[in-house]
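RETRY 2/3 - previous attempt timed out on the joint model. Re-submitting the same 410-residue input unchanged.
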Amino acid sequence: MAIVGAGAIGLSCAIHLQRAGFAVEIFDPRGPGEGCSSGNAGVIATAEVLPFGRPSILRQVPRMLFDPLGPLVIRWGYLPRFAPWLLRFIAACRPGEVERLAQAITSLLVEAVPSWREIVKGTDGERLLVSRGWLRLYGSKSALEAALPEAMWRRELGVKVDILKGGEIRELEPALAPIFEGAILFPEVGHTLSPLGLMRVLAAIVAQNGGRFHRRHISRIEIENGRAAVIDEADTSHAFDRAVIAAGAWSRHLVRTLGIDVPLDTERGYHVMLPTPAASPLRPVSVMSPGYSLIQMEEGLRLVTGIEFAGLQAPPDFRRIRRLVAHAATVLPGLKAEPMSEWLGFRPSMPTSIPVIGPIPGRPEVMLAFGHGHLGLTLGPATGRLVAALMEGKTPFADVAPFLPANAAI
Ligand SMILES: Cc1cc2nc3c(=O)[nH]c(=O)nc-3n(C[C@H](O)[C@H](O)[C@H](O)COP(=O)(O)OP(=O)(O)OC[C@H]3O[C@@H](n4cnc5c(N)ncnc54)[C@H](O)[C@@H]3O)c2cc1C
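RETRY 2/3 succeeded.
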């Protein structure tokens, strides 16, 4: 079994496929987890039961686009290529559609934490995964009130939600400056103290189970005599009974080599690492205006922001996130606003927020597993379970219909 891509999705698929008895070989020019899966906010974001595309987000788009500190950027030169994705995204924001997509996402999210706990059992991953909740911070009562309807919607979908006043925020997170009037706490959300550390734990499990890693870029996939041949940049062909495409934001290119297109684009996102302050928040905190998150990790304090539509090739633009560092110093008094490193990552995003999981119609040799957008870290192990069940012909834990390539507008 070949797996193309050693991110949260590819590694999780590898472990579950090994358990199902498959010998696994992973192809990736980067080290395990060194794509998008290492630089994220680390949140096991089980509260994100709503698709990213929804009426409230559409309403905020004009304001966000013109806010120099805001989280949304569209590089206008990219618009012609990005327009078809955008139109699908707008179509997915219809109320009835949002509810359908939310049900599908929830059906995976309910298994996210048990799947993580189970996959790292008995490894250092147990120490790296903690459950302390996730706090969304609002600077005014009116901003909090505006966010309440969606918080209640999440509650209806089974998410535990607490509404906090200023004093309660200070009790919970004394490191924060007393500048917030209200907050929404998702107390059951977990996070990892090191996304890269966690990916290395998964890679070690794969290796222990006999999995082999090849530092190879796969340039195309061909079906030959009922077998899947993955062909690397040196034009060497490696033939397998089955292949899984888990190449994150780069998966569209590989799927195209099989003559199929999929509406996958990338929502680029940024982080900077800051020195650990004397006092830092215990749990991930999101400053809802201007829009960024702070997460204390083993490697330092991570400031995460950004949804930038500019494709896979455009160079990074760190100007916006650098300005946010100064803002973060007003939220965390004593924060040394001197970034130690800067990072740009590529979320693999479908316009519906629904990942693509399952075999290509008419080509059972190739399974797809990508498009997890904002939730790839969260949903890695749950996706691995689904892929292994489909590969074995067993009944998966969730209805896979919404995720099947045939239903992903391919
Ligand atoms: C700023 C930011 C914050 C985020 N925060 C969170 C969060 O808190 N919680 C959460 O759940 N998610 C979060 N995400 C999203 C999450 O990181 C992604 O959804 C996830 O990492 C996707 O995993 P993946 O395995 O599909 O892709 P990747 O981790 O990108 O892995 C894909 C791999 O495929 C390899 N590859 C690509 N093309 C080829 C090829 N042709 N041949 C061989 N290998 C190839 C790449 O080198 C890469 O290693 C965040 C993302 C960003 C950008």
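The mean pLDDT is 96. Closing ticket.
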